[in-house]
Design goal:
The chain has 239 residues and is α/β, with parallel strands linked by helices. It has a single domain, classed as 3-Layer(aba) Sandwich (Rossmann fold). The strands form two sheets. The protein has a six-stranded mixed beta sheet with strand order 6-7-8-3-9-10, sandwiched between helices. It has a four-stranded antiparallel beta sheet with strand order 2-1-4-5, covered by helices on one side. A hairpin with a 2-residue loop joins strand 1 and strand 2. The longest helix has 18 residues. It is globular. Belongs to the ABC transporter superfamily. It holds the Pfam family ABC_tran. GO terms for molecular function: ATP binding; ATP hydrolysis activity; branched-chain amino acid transmembrane transporter activity.
Length: 239
Amino acid sequence: MSALLSIKGVTAYYGAIAALKGVDVDVAEGEIVTLIGANGAGKSTLMMTIFGQPRARDGLITFDGHDITRTPTHEIARLKIAQSPEGRRIFGRMTVVENLQMGAAVTKFAHYDEDLARIFAIFPRLKERAGQRGGTLSGGEQQMLAIGRALMSRPRLLMLDEPSLGLAPLIAKQIFSVVEELNRTERLTVFLVEQNAYHALRLAHRGYVMVNGRITMSGGGRELLERPEVRAAYLEGGR
């Protein structure tokens, strides 16, 4: 399988501090690939670097064979890459529908009615809350809205940054089930950053482990779940 997203030797800095230190990651079309690691390992920085904030200092980022290492952020969004960011970052004063319209703006509302109906079918709770302000939704509903907004742009690659963060286990499980179903039925390519290593690696075709800005391990999702060093570092304590 050829890589839809390819990251080769990427470094990124915050001032003089190296946050990414020669990172290599590939995501093939139709795959779910997960990146796990402790808080502060650099996972979210990698997500943001793909979108150019911060900009990669060294290395190469390609999407569908095109070099996007220096491409402006707003142009990257038009390339059919969508992100549901850490902390959701929905528009709290806007209604659910207005938030979804923001996602549809990338496609110039070409399939708006069809796409809105699709999101409401995927997340029936959002249909119930259609006229409600985003800031009044529960954490789980806000996460559904963040993912729904990303899906409204009809992405080829969906990037999810900590989708289970702060959610009750049952709600987190529902979110992961939706991701798995989208991948299975629509072959949606997903790049997932998660601290919940157990659920993330069970879901993923392949996974990477990041420690202090470096990739230290990679392999099949289930394979990584069975590695003693992964279990000791990320799975002890009943996850």
